Fold:
Amino acid sequence: MIASGKIEKPNAAGFTLIEVIVIVAILAILAGILAPMIFSQIDDAKLARAEADCKSISSAILAFRKDLGVWPNHSGAGCGENTQFLRGGGDLPGGLADMAYQTTATVLFSDVLMVDDEGCYNATKYRGPYLPVVNTDPWGNAYFLAANNFVATMTDPVFVLSAGPNGIVETPIFSVSPLGDDIGTRIK
Structure:
């Protein structure tokens, strides 16, 4: 349109290239600041969940012991009296043999704490399930413990352990506390 000798431009709506670049730069800076904070919260949540799971398994084993008067490795003839290792769901973590864990006589937590299908325990005293489910740790490995350390004559501690974020067991079987990035709760 031409009015009084001037050319009118239509209203140019939108952003200039400079404005778009500034906005993208601001968003990139915010993402760079917030991403590490968010990921550290996720890592902290995984550690907290592993600690809570270890405590739940520990509590279930202590309730089992209280009701039956035996640890889960000495249940009766033909029912796991020689159990050396208890484990939960998932794959076994690496490094168990290096830390002297015996996994040849392994029993699942579910066979001890959830059901007594084989009738291994005193039916009048068994008040299970002591634990509804044992999932994998937050990194996809099994929770475990050295059941052979429950023997009454042994003073060695027993821990429910997760191999932690690296998936490698760094706590020796006779350690007095979890080492490396392993997460655990002492039972005995």
The chain has one domain: 48-186. The CA atoms of residues 4 and 10 lie 17 Å apart. The beta strands are 2-3, 6-7, 85-87, 106-108, 144-146, 159-162, 183-186.
